[in-house]
Design a protein that fits this description.
Number of strands of chain A: 21
Helix content of chain A: 10-25%
Strand content of chain B: under 5%
Shape of chain A: globular
Low-confidence stretches of chain A: none
Strand content of chain A: 15-25%
Helix content of chain B: 55-70%
Structural class of chain B: mainly alpha
Number of helices of chain A: 13
Radius of gyration of chain A: 22 Å
Mean pLDDT of chain A: 92
Oligomer: heterodimer
Chain lengths: ~450, ~400
C-alpha cells in the first residue's frame, strides 16, 4: 500500500457533512435519464413518448460512437422527453410500473471470470450499457474499448464536499468489490485502487485490495491527481478511471446479468436540514431526497459536489454519475464594509480572516464575495493547484491563444477541481477558461 | 446601514443606463462597493468562492502601513519643531506632522484618483483598488519639504506612465509609486536628491532658522574618507544604530523607522499578502553583500567597505522599500523561487549603489525598479526549468 500525499493545501472545513448512516428514500414513481449531464455525448433517441421500457432497455445511443449505449434506469412507460434549446435532450422521464420488468443479460460466475478475456468482457459491458462508467483521462470522456489503457484507477473515495463516504456505501460490499476488481483486472493488470486515509473501516476491511491510500484535502482523491503523482512516462497519461459506486454497478451487472440501479446518495451542505446518506436508485428525482418545498431563490441545489456539481431544480433528477445532492444558501445579499471585517465566521483559504482560528465547520454560500478585477499575480492559484499547473500563467497564455504553451504547462493534467477559481481574490473564472480550452482542444483532436 | 443602502438605490438610476451621470458609473460603483460587497452569486461550478477579494487584499496593506504613517507623522512634526528650536510635546508634534503630511496624502489620493477615474470612464472598466495602496505609499517616500505641486506632478506620472499606459492595474511592469518617486528624483533633484536633510520649517512662526541644511545618514556615510569608520561618523552626527532603527531622525516621511516596517512586515507575512521570500531574500542580499565588502575591505579601500552590514538594513529606505515596495505582486515575479532571487538582488543592488555610486546616496528605489524589469525574466527561467522536469501530457 503506497501513501500518496497531495501536498500542503489549506481548505476551510465546510459545515453540513453527511452522517455515517443510510436511510431509505420514500417510494418514487418517476425516474429519468439525463443525457445533458453526460459530457461530450451527442445522444440519438431510440424511444418515444408512450413506449414501454424495461430496466436495461435501450434509451439512447451516442451519435459519435453508436456502440455506446445508455439503458433505462427504470421499467415503465416513457412519460415525457424534455428538450432544451436547439433540441438538446435534457431529460427522458419514465413513469415506473408497479412491477418493473428487467432485461436479461448473461451473468458470469466468479470462477468463469478467470477465463474471460478482457476483450470479451468489454464487449459485454458495451452491450450492457456499462461502458459509460469507465472514463479515460485526461478528457474524462467515455473510454474507447479498442485502445488498451495503461492502467485503471478505481477511486473508492470522492473527497469533494460532499459525496457518499466510502465507509458508508461500501459497508457489506466487500465481495462485490472483489468481484468488480477481478473483472477490471481482466482488462489490464495495472488496476490501482485508491481510498482516502480517513476511511478507516474500508482501510481495515479491504486492506489487501487497496494499492494507494491518499492524504490531503480535496481533490487528493481525484484519479487525475493520483496519476499526476504516480506516472513515470508520458504513455501513462491516458489512464482509465472508475468511481467506487460504479464498480459496484459493474460487479452487480456481470454477476447477476441484471441492469443494476442501486445508488447510495448523500444529501449534505450548509443548508441541508439533516445531512445524511440515502439508499436510492439511479435517476431518482431530486424531490425524493429533499422534498419539494425548498425556496430555490434562497437555497441552491447542486447535483454532485460543490466545486464541480451541476445546479439543479427540485423538480429535476439525478444524472448517471451523480451520487450527491448539496444544498447551500444562495447568499445574494450585500455585506456592509465586508473588506475590513475580522471575519471569524467567514471561511477562506487565505490567512486574511480570523476564521483561520475558528475550529468549527463554517457555513458557505454562493456569493462571489467581491467583484471581478484584473489578475494581480498574487499566486494564490499556483499555491492551491493540486497538479502544479501555474494557473495564472496558463490562463494568460490561453487569453492570447498560446495553446501550445498552456499544454506545456500541463493544461491536460488539470483535474477541473475549480480551486483556482475558488481562491482567486480577483474573482477570475480560471477553471472555466481551462475547461473551454480543453474542450476545444479535444474537439480538434477528435476522430473525424 | 439600511439608510445607506437606500441612498445608493435612489441614486443608482442617475448613474446607469440612460441616466444623466451614466458616464460616471465607475465612480458610483467604486463608492458603493466601498460600503457594500455586492450581492453577486456564482453562475455555475465552483459554486463557492473564497471570502478574500482584492479590496480586502489591498486594505490589509493599508493596515500594515498604519505604523509607518503614524510614526512618519509624529516624526515629521517632531523634527520640524525640534529644528526650529521648540520644546516638543507628543501632541504638538503630531499636530504639526499632520499639518505637513496630510496635505501630501490628500494631494496624492486626489490627483491619482482623478486619473484612475478618468481612465475607468474612458476604458469602461471598474476602478481598481490597487491605487488605494499606491496613493498612500507615494507620499511616504517623499521628503516633507516637497512642494505639493511636485507631489501632484509625480503621482500623475506614476499613474499615467507607470500604470495606465500599460493597460492599468495588473498589467504594469514597474511599481507605480516608485515610478512616481523616480520621476521626481530625476526631474527635481534639488528637492529630492537624498543628500540634504529634509526638515519642513518654512511656515513656522518664530523659527530660529529659516532653513536647515545638514546631511542624512546616507550622505554622512557617502562623505566618509578612506580610513574613516562610518558608524563613528554616524554616531558623531547623531545617528546611532538605535536612532536609525527606531527612526527618530529627519528623512523621507515614511522610511525612517525600521521598527515600524517590521511591524508592517509581520502583518503582511502572517496574512500571506506579501511574500516573505522577497523580504528575507532582500535581507540576505544586503547582509551577504555587506559581509563580502567587509571581507575585501583593506586600509586603502573606501570607508563604505568596512561598514557593518547591519547598518545597511536600517539606513535610508531599505526596510520600507523591501517590505512595501518590493512585495508588490504585480511588478514582482510570480514564482516562488524567483521571489528569493528577486529579493536577493534588490538587497545586493541597494548596497552596490550605495557603496559604488557616489551620485546616488540611496539605492533602494533604483534597485527595486531595476529588478521590476527582470521579474518576467526570472519567472520565465524558473518556469522553463520546472517544465523540463514535468512529464508531458499532450
Amino acid at each position: 500500500m503506497i501513501t500518496i500525499s497531495a501536498g500542503k493545501r489549506y481548505l476551510p472545513a465546510i459545515s453540513g457533512k453527511p452522517r455515517a448512516e443510510i436511510e431509505p428514500i420514500k417510494p418514487i414513481s418517476f425516474v429519468a435519464a439525463i443525457p445533458e449531464s453526460i459530457p461530450y455525448i451527442k445522444p440519438r433517441l431510440h424511444v418515444k413518448v408512450g413506449d414501454h421500457v424495461n430496466i436495461g432497455s435501450l434509451l439512447f445511443t451516442d451519435k459519435r460512437r453508436t456502440d455506446i449505449r445508455f439503458l433505462s434506469p427504470g421499467g415503465g412507460t416513457v412519460h415525457r422527453i424534455d428538450f432544451g434549446p436547439r433540441r438538446v435532450i435534457r431529460e427522458i422521464i419514465i413513469q415506473l410500473d408497479a412491477e418493473e420488468k428487467q432485461e436479461n443479460f448473461t451473468p458470469i460466475s466468479r470462477d468463469d471470470l478467470q477465463h474471460v478475456t478482457g476483450r470479451d468482457l468489454l464487449g459485454r459491458l458495451t452491450e450492457g450499457g456499462m461502458l459509460p462508467f469507465l472514463r479515460s483521462l485526461p478528457f474524462r470522456d467515455i473510454v474507447d474499448p479498442e485502445v488498451a489503457p495503461p492502467s485503471i484507477i478505481v477511486a473508492l473515495s470522492a473527497d469533494e464536499p460532499f459525496h457518499p463516504a466510502a465507509d458508508v456505501y461500501l459497508a457489506g460490499k466487500k465481495q462485490l468489490i472483489e468481484y468488480g476488481l477481478l473483472a477490471l483486472k481482466r482488462i489490464t493488470d495495472r488496476v490501482y485502487v485508491t481510498v482516502d486515509q480517513q476511511q478507516r473501516r474500508v482501510m481495515g476491511d479491504f486492506g489487501e485490495m487497496i494499492t494507494h491510500t491518499l492524504s490531503g484535502s480535496y481533490p487528493a482523491c481525484d484519479p487525475g491527481v493520483l496519476l499526476y503523482h504516480t506516472r513515470k512516462r508520458r504513455e501513462d497519461n491516458p489512464a482509465w478511471f472508475i468511481q467506487g459506486q460504479d464498480v459496484l454497478l459493474l460487479a452487480q451487472f456481470l454477476s447477476t446479468g441484471k441492469w443494476p440501479t442501486e445508488r447510495v446518495v448523500s444529501v449534505a451542505g450548509s443548508a441541508a436540514n439533516t445531512p445524511t446518506h440515502f439508499l436510492s436508485r439511479m435517476g431518482a428525482p431530486v424531490s425524493a431526497f429533499i422534498g419539494d418545498s425548498i425556496d430555490e431563490n434562497s437555497i441552491r441545489i447542486v447535483a454532485g459536489g460543490l466545486f464541480r456539481g451541476r445546479k439543479v431544480r427540485q423538480a429535476s433528477f439525478l444524472g448517471l454519475y451523480e451520487t450527491s445532492l448539496n444544498l447551500i444558501p444562495e447568499g445574494a445579499e450585500k455585506t456592509f464594509l465586508g473588506f475590513i471585517r475580522p471575519g471569524y465566521g467567514k471561511p477562506s483559504s487565505s490567512r486574511t480572516f480570523l476564521s483561520r482560528l475558528n475550529p468549527k465547520d463554517l457555513s458557505v454560500d454562493c456569493n462571489l464575495h467581491g467583484e471581478e478585477r484584473a489578475c494581480v499575480n498574487c499566486s494564490s492559484c499556483a499555491r492551491i493547484c493540486p497538479v502544479d499547473i501555474l494557473p495564472q500563467f496558463t490562463y494568460k497564455s490561453l487569453l492570447v491563444d498560446e495553446i501550445e504553451e498552456a499544454l506545456e504547462h500541463g493544461l491536460l493534467d488539470c483535474v477541473a477541481c475549480g480551486l483556482c477559481t475558488y481562491v482567486c481574490p480577483s474573482k477570475i473564472a480560471l477553471c472555466e477558461t481551462f475547461n473551454a480550452a480543453k474542450l476545444s482542444y479535444y474537439k480538434e483532436q477528435a476522430r473525424p | 446601514m439600511k439608510m445607506l443602502e437606500h441612498v445608493f438605490e435612489s441614486l443608482r438610476k442617475h448613474f446607469t443606463g440612460t441616466g444623466r451621470l451614466s458616464r460616471l458609473k465607475p465612480l458610483f460603483e467604486a463608492t458603493e462597493t466601498l460600503f457594500f460587497i455586492p450581492a453577486h452569486v456564482t453562475r455555475n461550478g465552483p459554486h463557492l468562492r473564497d471570502n478574500l477579494d482584492l479590496k480586502r487584499f489591498m486594505s490589509i496593506v493599508l493596515v500594515a502601513l498604519i505604523p509607518p504613517v503614524g510614526w512618519g507623522i509624529y516624526n515629521t512634526g517632531y523634527q520640524t519643531l525640534h529644528a526650529a528650536g521648540h520644546l516638543v510635546g507628543t501632541g504638538t508634534a503630531l499636530l504639526k506632522g499632520l499639518e505637513i503630511v496630510l496635505p501630501l496624502i490628500v494631494v496624492s489620493y486626489t490627483v491619482g484618483f482623478f486619473w484612475e477615474i478618468l481612465f475607468a470612464i474612458f476604458r469602461k472598466h471598474p476602478i481598481s483598488e490597487g491605487f488605494l495602496v499606491t496613493g498612500l505609499l507615494f507620499p511616504l517616500t517623499l521628503p516633507p519639504t516637497i512642494p505639493l505641486w511636485q507631489a501632484a506632478v509625480g503621482i500623475s506620472f506614476g499613474v499615467l506612465i507607470g500604470k495606465e499606459v500599460f493597460g492599468g492595474t495588473g498589467r504594469n511592469i514597474l511599481n507605480p509609486a516608485l515610478t512616481a518617486r523616480a520621476f521626481l528624483f530625476f526631474a527635481y533633484p534639488g528637492q529630492m536628491s537624498g543628500g540634504s536633510v529634509w526638515v519642513a520649517i518654512g511656515n513656522l512662526k518664530n523659527a530660529a532658522v529659516d532653513t536647515i541644511s545638514g546631511a542624512t545618514p546616507l550622505a554622512v556615510a557617502a562623505l566618509a574618507e578612506t580610513g574613516d569608520e562610518i558608524h563613528q561618523l554616524l554616531n558623531h552626527a547623531g545617528f546611532s544604530f538605535g536612532t536609525l532603527f527606531w527612526g527618530m531622525y529627519p528623512a523621507s516621511i515614511g522610511e525612517t523607522s525600521t521598527f515600524c516596517c517590521i511591524l508592517g512586515a509581520l502583518l503582511l507575512i502572517v496574512t500571506g499578502i506579501a511574500s516573505y521570500r522577497i523580504i528575507l531574500g532582500g535581507i540576505i542580499g544586503v547582509l551577504g553583500s555587506g559581509f563580502l565588502l567587509n571581507l575585501i575591505a583593506g586600509d586603502a579601500s573606501p570607508a563604505w567597505f568596512g561598514l557593518s552590514p547591519y547598518y545597511h538594513l536600517v539606513m535610508g529606505g531599505f526596510a520600507f522599500g523591501i517590505v512595501y515596495m518590493a512585495t508588490d505582486p504585480v511588478s514582482g515575479p510570480g514564482m516562488e523561487k524567483s521571489r528569493w532571487v528577486y529579493g536577493f538582488f534588490i538587497g545586493v543592488l541597494t548596497v552596490l549603489v550605495r557603496v559604488f555610486n557616489p551620485a546616488y546616496p540611496e539605492g533602494v528605489m533604483l534597485s527595486i525598479l531595476f529588478m521590476n524589469l527582470f521579474a518576467p525574466l526570472l519567472d520565465h527561467v524558473e518556469i522553463r526549468i520546472r517544465l523540463k522536469k514535468r512529464i508531458p501530457n499532450v
